[in-house]
Fold:
Amino acid sequence: MAGLPLALLGGVYALAVLYVGGLLSLTVLGLPFVIAALLGARALGALHRRLVGRLLRERIEAPTRLLRPAGVISRGRVVLTDPVAWRTLFYLVVRLPLGVLGFTQRWRCPSPVAG
Structure:
């Protein structure tokens, strides 16, 4: 139940980013938008990692940091080719229905009565 708000936030973010990024790809604003969206996805992934780590009481290793090469074009290329950002965006899309399904199953199934 604790992950539902974060799943909703991440899923809506990912779907909106993919939709708007697809539309803006027809303009000059598309590439900068996708770069910013991928950086945002990495940040949301960090929140998910933190929540899962606390719930499981385990330390979850963060992915490697992005390189910071000189030049705007080089930095953009690094973000666009970052597999962690794309994987996180995919995770956010998949996490949305799974989070909602888990939440609804929790409320449908009666909990066992103790004692």
Observations:
- The CA atoms of residues 4 and 100 lie 7 Å apart.
- The radius of gyration is 17 Å.
